[in-house]
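Troubleshooting entry. The earlier prediction with molybdenum atom gave an output that would not parse, so I re-checked the input for stray whitespace and re-submitted. Clean input:
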Amino acid sequence: MLIGKPSDIPSSAITPKEQYLNRRRFLRGAISGAVAAGAAAVGAERLAEVFSPRIGALAGTKLETVKSPLTTTGEELTPEEYITHYNNFYEFGVDKDQPAKNAGALPIRPWTIKVEGKVAKPLTFDIDTLLKLRPLEDRVYRHRCVEAWSMVIPWVGYSLSEFIKQCQPLASAKYVQFLSYYDKRVEKWASESTISWPYSEGLRMDEAMHPLALLTFGLYGEVLPNQDGAPVRIVVPWKYGFKSAKSIVAVRFLDKQPSTTWNDQAPNEYGFYSNVNPEVDHPRWSQKTERRVGLPFYSQRRTTLMFNGYGDQVASLYTGMNLKKNF
Ligand SMILES: Nc1nc2c(c(=O)[nH]1)N[C@H]1C(S)=C(S)[C@@H](COP(=O)(O)O)O[C@H]1N2
Ligand SMILES: [Mo]
């Protein structure tokens, strides 16, 4: 993210959608009989039984979802091959194409989220329990990276607030911090950047409780590919992408604003709030426009919207705040 201008994906890296799907179906068919039978129509509640912890890759596993009223309609979805081959996941390399190549090493089962800090009592949630907590919703959101590119992604998950309620935070909890998985033996590429791991992000409690903030388990109706933050990540659609921590293993409730990865790295470039704001330029580039990844070259450029277009829903969270100072 510290590197100036994001590079385009070479067109040779992109396969037509049909071919891509066929390859995935082929891969799906190649896994063992019992697993393949289950994978055809597996509901969230059956994941644990169908996939033993020994099977690392759940790629292609369908999730049962309901349509969400919070979906953002009217824009063309970004093709799946871009969402899964143009990633920021620095633990698996700083180049956009590296996570797709390297994140296969992420051990996504067994997986737990530890809940700590200002809570009634510390808790640990298993990923398969979390998948069953609420009906999973299909929610299409705009995704705006601070590097001035964007996508439109059909995520699968439910409001983060539903999870937070289960955590029983105390009244003294004013902020919530998310910590990503980190093991330097698995994420060998992490040492290539100066970041102090694990990746950490945070929200003010009222932001985290906003219904648009999503606890995310999948995209395009299937479990999250590893490179997109499997098995569970945060998505905060009105903020720059780096606020959405991937592959989270711990959630901490705090009475003070937590330190967060990019704010620590370069506080003059990346604020704690990081709301999408076309009026506040990054010190090294403009935030007024963005490049919509996956579209023909001539139609990529578009105007960036305040709060990424979610102002009607979220602007009231920031009433009275100077958003130029609190960027
Ligand atoms: N653990 C972790 N989470 C992360 C990052 C990262 O490097 N490590 N990158 C962030 C950034 S800068 C963006 S834009 C989004 C990218 O999500 P995507 O690859 O699914 O589009 O993830 C965010 N979450
Ligand atoms: Mo980003």
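This one parsed fine. Residues 2-56 have pLDDT under 50 and may be disordered.
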